[in-house]
Amino acid sequence: MNQSLEAAGAPEAVAVAAATAGFSILLGMSGWLLRRVLPQHQGELFLWPLQRRPVRALSPVRTRTYWYLAGINVIGIVGAWIIALAFGVGHPYWASVAVAAVMPTLAALTGYARMWHRFVGTAAGVVVAAVLFVWGPPIWLMVAILTLCSFGAEMFVARRYDIALLFITPLALGTANLAERRDWYPLFVDRFVETGLGVALAFVIVFAARRVVLREPPSAG
Fold first, then answer.
1. Residue 221: pLDDT above 60?
2. Cα separation of 185 and 70, whole Å?
3. What's 141-171 look like in SS3?
4. Which terminus of the chain faces fewer neighbouring Cβ atoms within 10 Å, N or C?
């Protein structure tokens, strides 16, 4: 019965997903459209001009470090998912997301700090999500809260990753439970545990692989 209901709702779900993706693309391209419509006001409305030709560089792909990092990321992301499944914790992809969020910093000096920010920021974000959601806000208010969280995440993610997670975590938890409206506490536990699992695995992999990356000479091009 449940499977037939899910199959019946598939076209609607696909249509909503397609409409959302299309709206997101249009929103992301709105700056380009305004530049075309109002070219005489570009200096007033925008800080930087658009590059006429995209800059492409294939030199990093030719290095061993590039493929080494790609392989390490695949191992970490898939490994986190498998370990989460083995532990039987719900939402195993959250462990993979945690690895993906910190693994690109493998060769960066801030890599370990980012892992710490991911774990502590997620833990604090779970507390924020509990304050926002456990009292059962109506759907319209949930959508408004998630919209504000999305805005806050975009404002802080590039400069203060730890602060951004105070918005990212409620956003992830809220969207995961927006339709089903299940009990919140298992979601909070899953998010915390799986983020910790992903960060711990990423720490082990980065600690073991960092020496190899730092030995690779920088690309000349």
1. no
2. 35
3. HHHHHHHHHHHHHHHHCCCCHHHHHHHHHHH
4. N
Other Cβ atoms less than 10 A from the Cβ of 185: the count is: 10
Residue 182: count other Cβ atoms within 10 Å of its Cβ: 10
Q: Nearest-CA neighbor of 84 among 70, 74, 71, 98?
A: 98
Tokens of 92: 């195993």
pLDDT tens per residue across span 150-208: 999 988 988 888 899 999 999 999 998 887 778 899 999 999 999 999 999 988 888 87
- Burial of 149-181, coded b for 16+ CB within 10 Å and e otherwise, reads bbebbeebeeeebbbbbbbbbbbbbbebbeeee
Q: Which residues contact 103 (CB under 8 A, 6 or more apart)?
A: 72, 73, 76, 77, 202, 205, 206
Q: Binning pLDDT at 50, 70 and 90, where does residue 91 land?
A: confident
Six-digit token string for 109: 């000096």
The percent of the chain in helix, strand and coil, each rounded to the nearest 5, is 75, 0, 25
Amino acid at 209: A
Q: What pLDDT, in 10s, does the model give residues 107-116?
A: 566 678 888 9
Torsion of CA 109, 113, 114, 120, to 10 degrees: 180
Structure token pair of residue 145: 């809260």
